[in-house]
């Protein structure tokens, strides 16, 4: 049961959003129903649907309201326009089957050459330690035409966070100040999640920067992949993450 809950996006979100410090960084999220989809689309115009249990960008769907032209459904790198809301719901239900899904406000991520990017941050602590540390962070830039930043799925690219910010529309913001704030939110997230999983020692946080530089926690992972850091030319973060895992 505990292992299932570690992978349950709703279980983690619903606990994190109750923190007064983290709430401003958590995009509005709820369970998918026809009624909740209509409310979220009306409020935000664009939403992301994703499975409650899932990883690596699998099953992610973006739904956008197109005003006079109905709705657009964007899956992987394919787009489809549907005129009636009822048909949108039927299309989604057919696509997701019996899987439980969440609806999340779509954060308009900062972009590099019209491609959105987010940030994977690894936060760890050593055995018998209460002190959390950011041991690695990397920017994932989505492949052309994709909504997900998963590198394998979207054929995207990896950059250092500093390089990504400098190349993005956020170039006017202090890189050092922004990265310090990212680390702060990541550490707050790890400390909050420790109350749910007191013996856990590593989290992988997918965090986004919107077009004003506000930091959002898109998702918290309890079993993060290390492949991003292994692929970086500078292997120092990868070595540090491995050292923390062992110690």
From TrEMBL:
One of its GO terms (molecular function) is ribosomal S6-glutamic acid ligase activity. GO terms for cellular component: cytoplasm. The keyword ATP-binding applies. InterPro entries: ATP-grasp, YheC/D. SUPFAM superfamilies: Glutathione synthetase ATP-binding domain-like (SSF56059). Residues 18-246 form the ATP-grasp domain. Pfam families: ATPgrasp_YheCD. Keywords: ATP-binding, Nucleotide-binding. GO terms for biological process: SOS response. PANTHER family: BETA-CITRYLGLUTAMATE SYNTHASE B-RELATED, RIBOSOMAL PROTEIN S6 MODIFICATION PROTEIN. This is YheC/D-like protein. It comes from Desmospora activa DSM 45169. The lineage of its organism: Bacteria, Bacillati, Bacillota, Bacilli, Bacillales.
């Amino acid at each position: 049961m505990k292992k299932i809950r570690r992978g349950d996006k709703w279980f983690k979100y619903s606990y994190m959003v109750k923190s007064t410090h983290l709430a401003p960084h958590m995009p509005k999220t709820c369970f998918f129903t026809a009624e909740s989809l209509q409310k979220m689309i009306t409020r935000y115009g664009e939403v992301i649907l994703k499975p409650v249990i899932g990883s690596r960008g699998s099953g992610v769907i973006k739904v956008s309201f197109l005003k006079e032209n109905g709705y657009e459904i964007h899956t992987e790198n394919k787009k489809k326009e549907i005129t009636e809301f009822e048909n949108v719901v039927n299309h989604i239900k057919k696509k997701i089957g019996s899987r439980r899904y969440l609806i999340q406000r779509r954060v308009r991520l900062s972009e590099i050459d019209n491609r959105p990017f987010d940030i994977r941050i690894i936060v760890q602590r050593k055995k018998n330690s209460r002190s959390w540390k950011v041991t690695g962070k990397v920017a994932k830039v989505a492949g052309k035409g994709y909504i997900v930043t998963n590198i394998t799925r979207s054929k995207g690219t990896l950059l250092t966070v500093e390089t990504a910010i400098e190349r993005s529309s956020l170039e006017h913001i202090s890189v050092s100040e922004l990265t310090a704030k990212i680390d702060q939110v990541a550490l707050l997230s790890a400390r909050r999640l420790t109350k749910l999983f007191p013996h856990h020692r590593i989290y992988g946080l997918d965090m986004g920067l919107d077009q004003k530089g506000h930091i959002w926690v898109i998702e918290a992972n309890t079993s993060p992949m290390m492949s991003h850091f292994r692929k970086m030319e500078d292997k120092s973060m990868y070595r540090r993450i491995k050292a923390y895992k062992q110690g």
